[in-house]
Amino acid sequence: MSMLISVQTAIADRLRQGMGRMVREVAADLDETALCGLQLAHGDYASRLTPGQSSPTINPQALARLPALWTVAGGITSSQPQASQRLRYKANALFTVIVGDRLQADANYAGAGVWQLVYAARRLLASQDFGLAVNPLLPEKVRPLGQAPRDGQPWSLVACDFSTYWLDEALDNGHWPSPQTDADPDALFRAFGGRLEDPAKTWQSTQLNYNLAGSAGVKAQDVVANPAPSQN
């Protein structure tokens, strides 16, 4: 499974467990542009995760579902080769949690309010790796996305950004995937008929031959064998 999907799913799962009754729903894999009603072609926003000059209005369908949290995978923002580790690349990724609730929480409102939800989301997610092979989440920007009235009160959406990274391993030059099990991420290529190659054979033994200087004949011979797996 893609690490992007794994991390996004883990973020949503932790928020579902941790937020309790503060929100109606925690959903993953929703598009920020659809939630906010943005029109990227109009040039108001540089990208779906970068605010521009004007604040958008909230999509009415999204407004009706608040209070809620939605997680968005912002993608891999850059990759750098790891100088000390051949064929490994550091993949830097961005994730966003969109928080939606009443702009102000008062005595007449039983919910937490948008800024309390921002605190709660960052509190639950900062420094977490979810048991995955990723760097713990680093909290980044908090960005107001827009607001709209509902029931005579202002409701707001706020984006909370988080970054992380992991190491991706490349194939040797000229080689093809060789998945070992169905759980191997490269099993994707087998499932869809991609080109594969046989996995490298397990090392069994190495034969070492010795001869004295100036002599062509072998004077001694050693065999270094791979030990059998322990039965303990």
TrEMBL record:
InterPro entries named in the record: Phage_Mu_Gp37
Domain of life: Bacteria
Pfam families given in the database record: Phage_Mu_Gp37
Protein name as catalogued: Mu-like prophage protein gp37
